[in-house]
Amino acid sequence: MKISDGKRQHKLMIVLSSLRHLKELLIPLLVLFVSHGFQREGSDRDLYWRLAVGAALVVGAFVWGFLRWWWFRYQVEDGALRIEAGVLVKKQMSIPLGRVQTLDTSEGILHRVFGLVQVQVQTAGGTKPEAVFTALSRSEAQWLERALRGEAAVGGAEVGAVGGGGEAALTAGVAYAGDAPAAYGSCGEGPAAALPAGPPPAAYAGSATPPGAARPAASAHAAEPPAAAEAAASGAPPDTAAPGASAPLPLGGSRTAVAPATAPEQEPVYRLPAGRLFLAGLTVNNLGVGISLLFAGLSQADDVFPGFRPFRLLAELSGPRVFLLLAAAVLFFSWLLAVGSSIVRFAGFTVSLHGGDLRITRGLLERNKVTLPVRRIQAVRITRELIWRPFRLAAVHVVCAGYGNRQGESTLLFPLMREEELEPFLRELCPEFAAAPDQIPFRSLPGKALWGYMLPLPLILAAASGAAWWLLPYGEWGFLAAALAAAGGYRSYRKAGYAVEGGRLSLRHGYLTDSVLIVPARRIQYLTVAQNPLQRRSGLAALRLSLAAGPLGSHYRMKGLSYSTAIELLHGAGRNGIPADPKPGVRTDL
Amino acid sequence: METRMPVERIDRRMIRVWRLTAWLAGGGLLLAAAGLLAAWYMWSWPWWLGAVAALAGVLEIGLAGYVRPPYMWRTWRYEIREDEIDLLRGFWTVRRTVIPMVRVQHVDLKMGPVMRRYGLAGITFSTAAGSHEIPGLDAGTADEVRQRISGLARLAHEDI
Questions:
Q1: ipTM score assigned to the predicted complex
Q2: Domain carrying residue A54
Q3: Is beta strand A131-137 parallel, antiparallel or unpaired with respect to A100-107?
């Protein structure tokens, strides 16, 4: 079958890709208009000429966007996603369905106005998304997801049964077009509905309820009118209608395609209570960004309002009370910024388990949906920010193979939850990593390691402040910084620890942020033990753990282990930790 | 047995490979320095451009060509066991990496022009979290090692 019979994307793609081209043209356009253009008055022809060129560029961008839309065709047939695209250079792509690793959707503001989504398809090993659909209607996205993920229903059965597979897939897509927006809407409108509706602050709903109760709970949380759900269920095509009706969740249909109507076990859903948005953004990093933004703003204010002069004002005032007031103001403003950013990023944060995949949905203005296969999770990292500690709150990150573009990037699995909720949460979503950080039997480092943690940074700071003391006013404050660094070093020594239990290696670090990394031994790619001359003298070593994530792997280091411990661990990953045969049901597609 | 240090050494000729490589790189820098100094003489470019390039060339040849190679050769050790690859290297900071055989994805034999001149080859093997190299082996040994690793890795293979 010719791919030219394939489908095009939604027409809004023309606008979206044209806007993207315009953004790329922004600088040339600015140069065109600004470059000594309006200094010389009276040369009208010059101005017209510029306007003509500018208009040509804008029209060109839209024509180009139209052509890209026109030439982009896609189809799911013969067990592969096939794409033909390109205006001047034609590109044909065929991704076997089994190779599709993740399917992420996001919605910008324009997308949300028109009820569309952007979809990225990734395969293992790739650093870039293999295929990007700029604009698909929600129903179409849902169909695509079903076709790529639930091969059983669309890719396998239909294509297998009907010789002209593309035809069947195409009709399926048409059949879905009418009804699915309602079903998907429960996901897309999540933040708007969930924020005011506000699930009870104590808990996330729907995880421990019996199967019968799951559905009301699920629809209630997203404030989805029951009618919409009914419509979605009844309007679904015959082959998936029955399981679709029992699906308790938005997007449940795609899962039921994989495991049709077997056990009606409900899928766990965890949702971030709106109240916690006020704490979730309060990380040391965010506060740092807030403070620097604030100071940047103040120094600009000096230029904009010459009378204002905040810094000069500050220099004239002095005394501890003013200083405290100032510190409070700075903290307050950075708190506002941090809370604002966390609301934008985490509003409506939901994570749920569908079949073997974790689905993460988040974002206020731009909705992002990420799908992570549980079996590709390499490690779980639990972090506790300084500010969260009194509230006993923590965030959960996962390190996932073939995911993350930069080195050491990990994906946020949940922005903020109580520490006692961690263990049940992990047990339900990724049992391999289930642990309560407090219950892990961490062993602390030998006493000799203290100096390696406490000395280096404070010594450098002390030396620098010694010099600054002579040369600069207030240089002696550097010694305070050195003392603080020493205290921090002492704390991170006390917090550092490792544990080997249940076939897992866990590392605990602490400085401003405490973190616990949990790695099953069979996920460790390799270990490195390093010793510098000082460590050799005191029989210590640093251990480096390398995991499969991102193109260069991600690496975690712990210094100050005793050398013998480090060497013991060095061989452990390959020998003891790995089960004789891989778990049944693990797809081998890497 | 588990804590046994790796014993195999790399080929001694690797010292000469490193030295020649350093001469090539340093020679390039010295040529550039000569050009820059000529430019200083003729068009009065800043003199320190040439000086910096010359200094960099001399340092490259001295450190990377003469100081480092003997230590590197003396400290490099490797061992290929049935279930793991054990690498030990470094003079100042000594690093030992153990790669379980099940993690090895593929093995390459690498032979640059300088190494070919001396009949040497390097072995690169990659894991899902980056790759490692055993730098200088006799070409025959290298091929043996490559076949051994790929054979063992195939036996041990498992999904990550």
A1: 0.85
A2: 12-152
A3: unpaired
